[in-house]
Amino acid sequence: MSYKDLQDFILTLEKKNELVRIKTEVDSELEITEITDRISKLYGPAMLFENVKGSEFPVLINAMGSYERMSMALGVEALDDIADGIGEFIDMSNYLGLMKKIKSLPRLSRLASVFPLKVPTKGDCQEVIDRDPDLSKLPILKCWPGDAGRFITLPLVMTKDPETGIQNTGMYRLQIFDKKTTGMHWHLHKDGREIYEKYRERGGKMPVSIALGCDPAITYAATAPLPKMIDEMMFAGYLRKKPVKLVKSITNDIYVPANAEFIIEGYVDVNEPLRTEGPFGDHTGYYSLADLYPSFHVKCITSKKNPVYPTTIVGKPPMEDCYMGKATERIFLPLLKMQFPEIVDHHFPLEGVFHNCVIVSIKKRYPGHAKKIMNSLWGFGQMMYTKMIIVVDEQIKPSDVSTVAWKVFNNIDAKRDIVISEGPLDALDHASNLPHLGHRLGIDATKKWPSEGYTRDWPDDIEMSEDVKNLVTSRWSEYGLDKFTK
């Protein structure tokens, strides 16, 4: 199913007993974080804070902070359900010239929903227009004691490539400097940074519009590791099975989701000196250091008449962003398998906070196959940031971390099975000697073959015979063990 907007999703969460309304007055400085951190660690519900000190707007947090709510956000029973058609969506050849071919190729008709609809009238997000904006009116969180200030943590930052005219939507935190100025946290490797660099070559002001509080599929799409030629709003349409309605911003030519709760419009002056942004308590569980970033200047804020302010906190897992990362893991597995058919499955442990560890199972076909996969993944998109890749045989389920650990602890010879590779690292990595550059570790925990120089007999796993397993299963209740799993 698709949701009309964020408030429609809130009502659905409430009907499913997945949301708690908190009417006690709370402070957006640290208090909401402390409450939410405790709830996250207890695998608790979404929360709507209806009485936030100093602001008229309620705050929604932890809305996608469980596997169940993440699946609900994307309108499926399980995240793997989305993966089935992702290869067809990503393969641009499938809908090259789609609008012309749609009538003659029925197979493509279901992809029509990916195309956003530009609405000529104003959207719900423009019911209230404030041309003298004041960011202090929003209940923006100061998340952690060491943060440099308040940060908008769930923004959909929308820009337009000056060469192609294609819009990009990404999620980059925004530190509040004053009532009309924020930082713009464009990392070195991000698409938003690349577009910014194009504007720097031209000089002048770069238009930016920021959406807060969209249908959750739209919010998730802004975080997805899409190829550059794929518009995030197209991907959101694919997830929703319904086109995203867009309206033109009031002060620039960027199109924004019509049903967003808030739109913040403005510009980045590319001729302006960079400004110190941070530190910030980040998803790694550590404070990311202060650094120099562009400034975003607010010209106008539009909103619904009774909007809800969405936010999230990040830190030591589990947190809400972990489940967004898990959605990416499941949805984009088929794309990975298209490139590397030998991959059976993969798993990013929550403790690895996205880039620090991935466990991959493969159908091993030749000597050194595991090492080939390691090096291939380090050269594949955002996988280049992955600090540790563990490769296991196809019968091992990567999400069964206990079994994976058993294989790693018992199956490796340190000299033969460890690979150390130098390459790019995520900007938030704090362990490397240099920013953006360091070493990655590969562990080959697969069974070793004679053709790989292994001269002994590799031992078989201990397994009970199938007839005894079946006998015990059939007699489980006779043992008086019904309350335990079989």
What does this structure look like?
This protein has 2 domains: 305 residues, Roll (Pnp Oxidase, Chain A); 113 residues, UbiD C-terminal domain-like (3-Layer(aba) Sandwich), CATH 3.40.1670.10. It is α+β, with helices and mostly antiparallel strands and 486 residues long. The two termini are 35 Å apart. The strands form 6 sheets. Strands 5, 6, 7, 8, 9, 10, 11, 14 and 19 form a 9-stranded antiparallel sheet that branches. Strands 21-22-23-25-24 form a 5-stranded mixed sheet, with helices on both faces. InterPro entries: HBDC (IPR022390), UbiD (IPR002830), UbiD-like_C (IPR049381), UbiD-like_N (IPR049383), UbiD_Rift_dom (IPR048304). Its EC number is 4.1.1.61. Belongs to the UbiD family.
The biggest beta sheet is recorded as: 9 strands, antiparallel
Distance between the termini: 35 Å
The domain tally reads 2
What is the annotated CATH architecture of the largest domain?
Roll
Q: Please count the helical segments.
A: 15
Shape: globular
Report the strand count.
Answer: 25
Question: How do the strands and helices of this protein lay out in sequence?
Answer:
Blueprint: H1 6-15, E1 19-22, H2 31-41, E2 46-49, E3 59-61, H3 67-73, H4 80-83, H5 86-90, H6 98-101, E4 117-118, E5 128-130, E6 151-152, E7 156-160, E8 167-170, E9 174-178, E10 181-183, H7 191-202, E11 205-212, H8 216-221, H9 232-240, E12 245-248, E13 255-257, E14 262-269, E15 275-277, E16 280-281, E17 287-288, E18 291-293, E19 295-303, E20 309-310, H10 320-331, H11 333-339, E21 343-347, E22 358-362, H12 369-378, E23 388-393, H13 401-411, H14 414-417, E24 418-424, E25 437-444, H15 466-474
Parallel strand pairs: 1-2, 3-20, 4-12, 22-23, 23-25
Antiparallel strand pairs: 2-3, 5-19, 6-9, 7-8, 7-11, 9-10, 10-19, 11-14, 12-13, 14-19, 15-18, 16-17, 21-22, 24-25
